[in-house]
TrEMBL record:
It comes from the Eukaryota. InterPro entries: P-loop_NTPase, Thymidine_kinase. This is Thymidine kinase. PANTHER family: THYMIDINE KINASE (PTHR11441), THYMIDINE KINASE, CYTOSOLIC (PTHR11441:SF0). It comes from Panicum virgatum. Pfam families: TK. GO terms for biological process: DNA biosynthetic process; thymidine metabolic process. GO terms for molecular function: ATP binding; metal ion binding; thymidine kinase activity.
Length: 264
């Protein structure tokens, strides 16, 4: 059987056009081997589903506000977090010398401090939005492999990472994301992405720079979570999942019109 590679898209979530029937008229799928840039103008999502349309329109104001914000990215430093344990934070905090979090703060922590620290409204809005990266393809395409490589590279470059998968995927156990050829990495197995904040606690969430999500197609709240994590909290979110099944996976699709560029 011919091996198919997953497609990788990358982008900030930037609202470009108000979704209308006319700009929702094209397929979300690029031509095979296409290097074309993704974005609402070029590759809008194809949907006539009223719920999807409502969702897109409802998110527009949030995204517009997020896009209005601009500030230099705050570079973050930390060591690779220890294996997540249920009922405990996945990061050691407050260490001195090898202070795992160094002196830098996460974008969200910095943003919160600006907002809560009596800064002006302009300062409060000056938060760098994050990014959403999408790895998409059919089963056995190497999506999880690509996700783990990316997350491990981010961790290796000093960012704090957290990995999530759907608890619906219990094929290789629940405590790890596992590729079909056996590479694995500890993860949080969740039924809903909205549980992530509760599992980590707000302080630990603040310190996370990169959130990897595997089996993204199973999360009904994928779109809301990704947009909030990227646009409100400045996170880099790397999402891997199937491009569709018989139920259409609308949550995954509606991320696509907000993606503005693909890696060269
Ligand atoms: N049937 C199979 N059995 C074992 N390993 C496989 C099989 N098909 C693919 N692989 C290996 O698994 C890798 C892809 O696994 P993975 O990243 O988990 O894919 P995906 O997340 O897209 O399903 C491939 O690079 C290949 O080496
Ligand atoms: C095609 C298809 C797949 N699924 C399920 C089966 C697996 O749990 C995942 C895919 O995982 P992989 O890492 O890409 O191998 O999705 C499904 O529920 N519905 C489908 O149509």
């Amino acid at each position: 059987m011919r091996h198919r590679s997953p497609t990788q898209l990358i982008g900030r979530t930037v609202p470009i056009l108000k979704p209308t029937q006319s700009n929702l008229s094209h397929s979300i799928f690029p031509k095979k081997n296409s290097k074309k840039v993704f974005g609402t103008r070029r590759h809008p999502v194809h949907t006539t589903n009223p719920a999807t349309m409502r969702s897109i329109c409802a998110m527009r104001s949030l995204l517009t506000a997020a896009a209005a914000a601009s500030a230099p990215t705050v570079l973050r430093a930390s060591a690779f977090p220890p294996r997540p344990q249920l009922r405990s934070l996945p990061f050691r905090r407050g260490r001195a010398a090898g202070n795992m979090l160094g002196t830098a703060r996460s974008v969200s922590a910095a943003a919160r401090s600006r907002i809560g620290g009596g800064g002006s409204a302009m300062e409060a809005r000056a938060v760098q939005s994050g990014e959403i990266h999408v790895i998409v393809g059919p089963m056995f395409a190497g999506k999880t492999t690509a996700l783990l490589r990316r997350v491990q590279a981010e961790a290796g470059s000093g960012r704090t990472v957290a990995l999530i998968k759907s608890d619906k995927d219990n094929r290789y156990g629940l405590d790890s994301v596992v590729t079909h050829d056996g590479t694995k990495m500890a993860c949080w197995a969740l039924s809903e992405l909205s549980n992530f904040h509760d599992k980590l606690g707000i302080e630990a969430y603040d310190k996370v720079d990169v959130i990897g999500i595997d089996e993204a197609q199973f999360f009904d709240d994928l779109y809301d979570f990704c947009c909030k994590a990227a646009d409100r909290d400045g996170k880099i979110v790397v999402v891997a999942g199937l491009d569709g099944d018989y139920k259409s996976l609308a949550q995954f699709w509606i991320l696509f019109p907000w993606l503005t560029q693909s890696p060269s």
